[in-house]
Amino acid sequence: MQVTLRICAKVNISLDVTGRREDGYHTLDSVLQPVGLFDTMTVSLKAGQGIRVLCDKGPDNEDNLCYRAAADFLERTGLSAKVTVDLHKGIPMTAGMGGGSADAAGVLLALNRLCANPLSHEALCELGLNLGADVPYFLLGCTARVQGIGELVEPVRPMPPCWFVLVRGGQKPSTGHMYALLDERMKHKDKQPATQAVVEALNNDDLDALCENLSNDFLAVYPDRRASAFLHEQGAKAVCLTGSGPIFYGIFDHKEQAESAKTAIGQAGFEVYLAQTEEKAIVFE
Question: In a 10 Å sphere around its CB, with 0-12 CB exposed, 13-18 middle and 19+ buried, how is residue 190 labelled?
């Protein structure tokens, strides 16, 4: 038995860092939106034992988060099977776009379907949160508000259709270092959270209001703003960062505008992508 999935990237259209727990984890309030950069994955299940992960770009087997997702699923369900995951990457890697978490969620959903749904959505999310903070979001897989350390996921109205030009903004510090810089900044400066305003703009189907409130706390400490400057120069309605970087994105109303911006920024030597809003992050084909 096997299933094939198409798996989308995500962007943060808001990201407020709301605190830090005693265990060191930071709490967030963020809105995530699926966008059309895709991984494709085929998961097969046969009699026997063992897990094999094959990836065309990136690590195979135990070094891939998909392996751990499959192992955790089999352990939780008590099932014995031979699992093969064949993964083809289209989502930029180490980019703040959730590719690893999305793929782990895809494995959990695929195995649950192949095994006749032994786990509830809540049980899958519990497994997923141990794999990565974005995994519960991808298990739901629509535009959503995500809070806490990723465990609180609430669907919200999707973004109005638009286009994203996504640009890799140079080498970034480690995520841990970015959080340390942000912690220091937050000691000395109050910031008005933006996520609620973004949710209200979505509820009103108002792309202009959303663009006015686009926000990511990591922008304040991101060291290299050249990609952002190029996106503004090319006429983006708004520019923001996804995750802790290094991908900046600009929002455009029309595909022709976005394609022109992508071409110009690519000619300047940047790694650049074009994507549209998507309704679902993970789709069985």
Answer: exposed
- Cite the beta strand spans of 56-184 per DSSP E: 82-88, 144-148, 152-155, 163-168
Distance CA 154, CA 194 (A): 17
Which neighbouring-strand residues pair with 85?
43, 53
Determine which one of 29, 134, 217, 262 is catalytic. 134
Catalytic-residue membership of 10: yes
pTM: 0.94
Q: What is the pLDDT of residues 195-244, one digit of tens each?
A: 999 999 999 999 999 999 999 999 988 988 899 999 999 999 999 999 99
3-state SS class at 138:
helix
Looking at 10, 89, 172, 262, which residue is catalytic?
10
Residue 87: which residues within 8 A CB-CB, separation 6 or more? 39, 40, 41, 53, 54, 55, 56, 58, 64, 66, 103
